[in-house]
Amino acid sequence: MRKLLFFSLFLVFQISFAQQDDLSMSYYLPTDISYNESIPTPEESIGFIPGEWHVSHDRLVSYMHTLAAASPRLKIENRGTTYEGRPLILLTVSSEENIANLEEIRKKHINIVSEDSSQDLSNMPVVINQGFSIHGNEASGSNAALLYAYYLAAAEGPEIEETLKNTVILLDPAFNPDGLQRFAYWANTNKSKNINPDPQDREYSEIWPGGRTNHYWFDMNRDWLPVQLPESQARIKTFHDWYPNVLTDHHEMGSNSSFFFQPGIPSRTHPLTPQLNQDLTKEIGTYHAQAFDEIGSLYYTEENYDDFYYGKGSTFPDINGSIGILFEQGSSRGHAQETDNGILTFPFTIRNQFTAALSTLKAAENMREKLLNYQRNFFKESRNSASSGAYAFGSEHDPIKAYELAKILKRHQIEVHKVDKDFTEAGLKFKKGNSYVVPKNQRQHRLLKAMFERRTEFQDSLFYDISAWTFPLAFNLDFSEDVAIKNAGEKIQELEIPTPEQPEKSSYAYLLDWQNYLAPKALNMILEKGLRAKVSMEAFTFEGNEFAAGTIMIPVQNQKLEQDELYCFMTEVSEASHIAIKGIPTGMTGGINLGSNQFRAIEHQQVAILVGGSISSYDAGEIWHLFDQRYDMKITKLDLKDLAGSDLSRYTDIIVPSTWGGGLNDGVATQLKDWTKNGGTIIGFRSAVNWLKNNDFNDFETKKTDNTAKDVSFGERGDFRGAQVIGGAIFEADLDRTHPIAFGYNRDKIALFRNTTIFMEADKQSYKNPIRYTEEPLLSGYISKPNLDSLAGTVPFKHDRLGRGEVMLFTDNTNFRAFWYGTNKLLMNAIFFGTEM
Fold first, then answer.
1. How would you class 424 by CB atoms within 10 Å of its CB: exposed for 0-12, middle for 13-18, buried for 19 or more?
2. How far is Cα 609 from Cα 443, in angstroms, rounded to an integer?
3. How far apart are the C-alpha atoms of 235 and 144, rounded to whole Å?
4. CB 410 within 8 A of CB 492
5. Which residue among 20, 44, 232, 750 is buried most deeply as judged by most CB within 10 Å?
6. How far is residue 759's CA from residue 763's CA, in Å, rounded to a whole number?
7. How many CB atoms neighbour CB 370 within 10 A?
């Protein structure tokens, strides 16, 4: 047995460098208990005491496997891999007896949320899901996980035995393996033997894009609801496999801060979250306060943060019968840094995270029956509050978008049904194979309502994140909030992607419907094969079927493939992209004929995107992900630091994502302007719109909003300014479907996500305004009255010529967080049809 010596050390916010050199496990661990000597310590496994170095993900995983092999209290599983191939592991920790009966315990726990929820809870373990460092450069969490896992495996005595008997702990040591690995490399390669706490040292200033994000530069703490990333899919499956009673999410914040734990600002809690949820969160907070008082660490609560957007890790549980808790630790962003509170060291941040993990465990055990009863009553009340009827969503011409939304619902254990036969509701046609029905009266009623509702009235005008995320609007689907349940066909057990019929062989031409979400993938395959393709600028008909403007025509003659080879390839394209391709035997179509000049040749596009420097990694990553993962299209990432030496003539299109700060330098502007004048297409998003205007790529007028503060005190100034921000809301715009930017859309209205206050005035020439906000554009979310007045009638898209090239501007993000499927095609239209605008 190893008895750790008592190590008396009073800290408010710092430890000296001498103490850091003498760092020992007794600095972190409770010293009044014994630890099993047969359980390897972190130092014995990874070669250092946590806090001396930043643990890399491979070493973290290795230690977790070592612990699982050494302790019967632990079970380890690999739930998948990240984009970079790193394992997404989970440790399940409980008493040895519970581990031996884990599946039986899980089923009994799941029964709490089911229809039959009358079982006795007095002897049932409480389930805690504790996750660390979803932002990879907020590394104190994952490094604390080393200590927490060791403590759970090695601590001895009746107290820990009783705790493990009464709890099941789902321990995710690294929510973001790729980001954690990236940051550990940075911090360790820039560490000096003589640790330098100067905030200007290179160690504390990561190179772009930093370790916060995953491989495609997504903030994964915004993906709990959309579930678009493999890391999210793994942790959401774990959540729904267990429905934990408490989920904790360990983060870091600015270095001059102390430690925050929830609840956040009470007025910024989503109305669908029960008040009892916040009461229980506050009660759990008393355990954190006591633990931090004992070690002398500063903390605060009920400030700054909120519980509104259900796509965050600490808020997602609140709409699922659990208690979500956010922890935010002031960050050392390396090994030690000067702050307003003294020198903040990495070991100190780790100890606070470890302390919070222990206090959560204690709270959950002591509040066990209260938490279990809350969960049971949450779902009981959810079912009782559900109305009759159902939601319906679909698209008459695009089965893929509807399928992708159904897939998200299924990941959240929401009951989804097929449509057995076509039906019409309020003028909207819901087709078999293209549509789905979702009953309201089901266990996940509250979550379903949170995902589908439109909300425009709020108790508070400030939001830590977005204020709207209405999924049917995000997918640009036909949607009804109230259809008869009789329209629900068979309940879907395993969702299958819609598969079109095989193309008919043609000796004349093939037609590809651009209204399908995956049409850009199909077109790119065709162009990469070196085949000729044309786009129709007008609608036409054949055998009673209408083909909209934007239809792609692939002639059979004068191609590099023979007729039979072309047929085989078109079949391959149809299968790979899940899109219907129609072979027709004649060019004599209704309206324009296939040989018309209104069919325009499409060039194979070579696309590049600016990255690095002041470019927003979030916006750039979403575009990279769209091309690479959704459409299997190559996109070249041009780093700003290398741009001057790059041969831009290789590219037909260059995308400039939003920028931070003052935009890009004059040299970049000159280089890009010359390239555009020579025939390139430049596409700017969000703040890049202003940068392009300021550098004379184009010119437009903007609406100015009068947001003068009246009767606002000095103490209220922050709230006043925050209320003028459009943090993320949804707005309606009119769509001119004869314009190439709108090809592939089958309605005259479109829902757009907006999180900027760039209000571009409409052009005097009406045909230059293919997308224009309506006079009452707010569909869902918060916007101040002055900003709403300014937005009405403005345009989110502009196209101009510059020399022989094209300039296209989007004031907002058409690719938001990878789940705004409904506007992805706007960017694809700009890429493929830009020269036809």
1. exposed
2. 44
3. 19
4. yes
5. 232
6. 12
7. 16
CB atoms within 10 A of CB 763: 16
Do residues 602 and 535 make contact, with C-beta atoms less than 8 angstroms apart?
A: yes
Place of tokens 């310590």: 41
What does the alpha-carbon distance between residue 526 and residue 560 come to, in Å, rounded to a whole number?
A: 11
Q: 537 and 836 in contact (C-beta within 8 Å)?
A: yes
Type of residue at 323 = I
Cβ atoms of residues 192 and 785 within 8 Å: no
Tell me the C-alpha distance between 762 and 156, whole Å. Answer: 71
Burial status of residue 266 (CB atoms within 10 A of its CB: 0-12, 13-18, 19 or more):
middle
What are 83's two structure tokens?
A: 């984009």
Distance (Å, whole) CA 324 – CA 818: 24
HSE-CB of 441 using CA atoms within 13 angstroms: 9
Q: Whole-model pTM?
A: 0.95
User: Contact 442/383 with Cβ under 8 angstroms?
Assistant: yes
Segments in the chain below pLDDT 70? 1-21, 116, 461, 662, 716, 718-723
Structure tokens at 300: 């605060």
Q: At what angle do helices 368-385 and 275-295 cross, to 10 degrees?
A: 160
CB 467 within 8 A of CB 781: yes
- What's the token pair of residue 674? 């010359």
**Burial class of 31 by CB neighbour count within 10 A (0 to 12, 13 to 18, 19+):** middle
Tokens of 543: 């055998």
Q: How far apart are CA 293 and CA 309, in angstroms?
A: 31
**Residue 659 neighbours by CB under 8 Å, 6+ apart:** 614, 615, 616, 687, 688, 691
**Radius of gyration of the chain from Cα atoms?**
28
Between CA 677 and CA 684 the distance in angstroms is 16
What three-state secondary structure class fits 278?
A: helix
Contacts of 94 (CB under 8 A, 6+ apart): 73, 102, 105, 125, 164, 165, 167, 168, 169
> What letter represents residue 798's amino acid?
K
- Helix ranges restricted to H, 462-552: 471-474, 519-528
Percent helix, strand and coil across the chain, each rounded to 5?
A: 35, 20, 45
* DSSP 8-state assignment for residue 330: E
Extended strands (E) in 499-657: 509-512, 534-536, 540-542, 545-547, 552-555, 581-584, 590-591, 599-601, 607-611, 635-639, 653-656
Q: Which of 468, 455, 448, 322 is nearest to 387 (CA)?
A: 448
Give backbone dihedrals phi and psi of 801, rounded to 5 degrees, phi first. -100, 145
Q: In what order do the strands lie in the sheet with 534-536?
A: 581-584, 509-512, 552-555, 534-536, 599-601
Question: What's the pLDDT score for residue 699?
Answer: 93
Residue 716: its pLDDT value, please?
Answer: 62
d(CA 331, CA 257): 8
| Separation CA 631–CA 615 (nearest Å) | 23
Sign of the Cα torsion 378, 234, 349, 93 reads positive
3-state class (DSSP) for residue 321? coil
How far from 802 is each of 49, 666, 771, 809, 832, CA to CA, in Å?
60, 18, 21, 13, 18
CB atoms within 10 A of CB 500: 17
Bridge-based pairing state of the strands 509-512 and 581-584: antiparallel
SS3 379: helix
Angle at 53 between CA 51 and CA 59, to 5 degrees: 105
